[in-house]
Amino acid sequence: MAAALALAGAQAGLDTAVITVDPSERLRDALGLARLGGQPTRIDARQLEAAGIDANLKLSAMMLDVSGAWDAIVERFVADPATRRRVFENPFYKSLTAEFAGSEAFAALQRLYELHQTGAFELEVVDTPPASHSFEFLQTPARMIRLLDSRTARWLFTPSLSVGRIAMRVANETARFVVREIERFAGGNVLSTITDFFAAMAESMDAIIDRLQKTEALLHSPAMKFVMVTTAEPDRIRQARELLAQMDAEGLKLSAIVINRFLDEKTWTAVAESGARPLSHLAEISELRKSIAKDGAAANGLGRLVKHFEEYRERTIGEIDRVAAFARELPKGVSLAIAPEIEAGVRDLAALSRVAAYVMSGTAILRRLEVAAKGVVASREPNS
Asked: Got the DSSP string for 179-244?
């Protein structure tokens, strides 16, 4: 979906880059790229043309190199080569960049900040972790600032900065909290490696914290728009409502919600075709039930098949009702977009372009689906 949104942005005339943290080859294949690395790669005009897409649009993609992004921060802010080697070889640093739950988030946001500062692209689309971890992703800069900017951490782990008894007493009183936080971040390393890390980074820590603060400011700036991608299952809709409330409380601007894999392309096509009766294939399921009841064919397995169709009908009507109700309760300023399940999957640029077209087509189809679903409910047999 991130790639589809980026393609839609490029089709709108914007020079666009999509950044993914997922090492899966699906995105690379869908974009028609031989490889996807840590630098933006432009989609070839011939590949765009072969997929029926304007060959002149500007779309680039990159896959995040998490450890490389962390190393780039150290290389930028730690001037002394010997100190840099000391940081790179430090077990705490290795754990922080590889095992810390927010390491990908930190790296992605730093890369986004760099791209935004260069002005190389008019639109940058970042694919974040799944919804269950997305809020942690957004909170990462603030959490890192609270940790690294803690005077207690510096007193505790950089003895040369611990001046006088008062400082040491303050550090001792809150040492358990700091150690617990750091161990939660980095997996419980021995304190000596943590101490060595803070000592090596002492001179550059203020610069890194300043960078984190600028990244945090970017997240809350008008330049940043968030798009939540979910599906129509009840638990996902409930989770979307919770995330909406959390983002509002944090002052993060949610611009749109995409309901992905909403129904199937057959249903969408039936609604979109001029003169077609929306959801007629669902209404016909009741006729199947009548037919097998009349012919006594339930015993040969057709009854179970019809039951499957009936469950499909109920699931479809349920999804339409949930999404329509969700659309009505969205706060002002939050747009809704919907896209169906692509039966063959999104395996190339042509399929990606179809997804982009669905997302940008608006939600007028939802009203027609809701009206048609009520008609199906009214016409079906009470015992079906």
From this structure: HHHHHHHHT---HHHHHHHHHHHTTTHHHHHHHHHHHHHHHTSTT--EEEEE-SSHHHHHHHHHHH
In a domain, 198, yes or no: no
262 lies in which domain range?
258-379
Token pair for 113: 């900040």
Confidence of residue 323 (pLDDT cuts 50, 70, 90): very high
Tell me whether residue 97 is in a domain.
no
* Residue-level length of the chain: 384
Q: 296 lies in a domain? A: yes
pLDDT score of 171 more than 50: no
- Please give the tally of structural domains in the chain: 1
| Beta-sheet strand order (sheet of 16-20) | 41-42, 59-63, 16-20, 123-127
Q: Helix crossing, 205-219 with 66-77: angle to 10°?
A: 130
Structure tokens at 17: 């880059």
Q: What is the pTM (predicted TM-score) of this model?
A: 0.78
Using alpha carbons, select from 381, 382, 383 the residue that is nearest to residue 287.
381
Residue 264 lies in a domain: yes
